[in-house]
Amino acid sequence: MTSSPAPDEAIGDLLDQIADQLGGPVPAPLRAALHAVPRHLFLPPTLWLRDGNGGYEPCERESAPDRWWRAAYRDAPLVTQFTEGPDGDRVPSSSASMPSVVVRMLMALDARAEHSVLEIGTGTGFNAALLAFLCGAGNVTSLDVDPELTRRAQRALEASGQQPDVVCADGAGGWQPNAPYDRIISTCAVRTVPLSWLEQTSPGGLIVTPWDTPWCNFGTLIATKRRDGTAEGVLAPYGAFMLMRAQRVDVELHRDVLRDGQKPDRSVTELSPWSVAGTDLDAQLHIGLRVPGTWHAWDTEVAAAHTRLWLADDEATSWASVDYDGRQLSTFAVAQYGARRLWDEVVQAYEGYVAAGRPGVRRQRLRISPDGSGTRHQVTSG
Fold first, then answer.
1. What number of other Cβ atoms are within 10 A of residue 90's Cβ?
2. DSSP 3-state assignment of 130?
């Protein structure tokens, strides 16, 4: 790419951007890794960049090499693949993570030359290459469920000179042939730690994974495996990743009118819906951890209210709505239907959040225990 700057110059600029995010310099081993495996080697010829209107527009390496190169070395996530959803819309299905978040997660993972590492979600292969540089290619196994992504990543890794063991497999099952692992890192979010990850991590080993609840997609779990087979850790305030495919749930929200036979309970609330579903990510994460299987959506096109917050459970058997009439912000109309009183659960969780001193993300602790064929999670605020 003759019109592009030298890779070392671009990587140096990227390291400065990452340092600004970290509030300090990138640790020396990671600086060396980022120089050894340039990010552009792992990006496809077409990147999808935000268009400023809530959508994406293509950026072609061949027709816009300077713009493509600037995107490659900007501290920002890049969409690299779209798939067609059930409703026919095209949705992002793979991306190159924000480099500063990649560095934060690798710092949390603390992977060293003697460590055996399992990566869930090969994606472009960039993170696998960094791990191979840090730990040695023979110590790194990387999984991806998408055959085409796996093939692209293998080609990019070969071109970079880093060749960890890349396997096309569902990361939800881990990879028993190379277990146990000193470190497991996921580049997709989970709502529950798969039992296989817990079982395949050595005692004293670490699991680092983005966290997700239906209410809030935010935070990264850093958990240590105990000798008793459990794991315990904290959430860090970064990371918003695509959810692991095996844990995605199809949901339906009753938006337009009440269905025949549904008679919701009606009441009023003094709790603003913006307090629980606005800009306070600490509150949202607290609620998401304590009101399981519940998600929300804002609606400004409903006829009965100026603005409505919808709530529903994953099975769409219980739902609630909270209405703002466009005039006053002291009380809001509530409707609830189903076996669960979802708004009541949210209010209780929010009151607990306030009573606990509005704990930040780092005060949320998770204990993960084997539970039959899966795991269960116990949440506390430290």
1. 12
2. helix
- Scored b (16 or more CB within 10 A) or e, 230-264 reads bbebbbbebbbbbbbeeeeeeeeeeeeeeeeeeee
pLDDT of residue 315: 79
Q: Which two tokens stand for residue 372?
A: 């039959």
pLDDT of 55 reads 87
From 3, 4, 94, 97, active-site residue:
97
Q: What CA–CA distance (Å, rounded) separates 21 from 253?
A: 37
CB-based contacts of 193: which residues, under 8 Å, 6+ apart?
207, 209, 221, 223, 231, 368, 375, 377
Annotated catalytic residue 318: no
Sign for the CA dihedral angle at 149, 215, 103, 167 comes to negative
* Residue 190 DSSP class: B
**Do the bridges between strand 117-120 and strand 181-186 make them parallel or antiparallel, or are there none, so unpaired?**
parallel
What was the pLDDT predicted at 250?
A: 60
d(CA 341, CA 338): 7
- pTM of the full predicted structure? 0.91
Q: What is the pLDDT of residue 91?
A: 75
Q: What is the pLDDT of residue 257?
A: 38
Answer whether 146's CB lies under 8 Å from 171's CB. no
Per run of 10 residues, the mean pLDDT along the chain (length 382 residues) is: 68 97 97 96 93 89 95 93 70 86 97 96 96 98 95 96 97 97 96 96 98 94 97 94 79 49 91 97 96 93 90 88 93 95 98 96 95 89 76
Q: Omega into 44 within 30° of 0, i.e. cis?
A: no
Element holding 15 (H helix, E strand): helix 7-22
Does residue 360 contact residue 280 with C-beta atoms inside 8 Å? Answer: no
Say if strands 140-144 and 165-168 run parallel, antiparallel, or are unpaired.
parallel
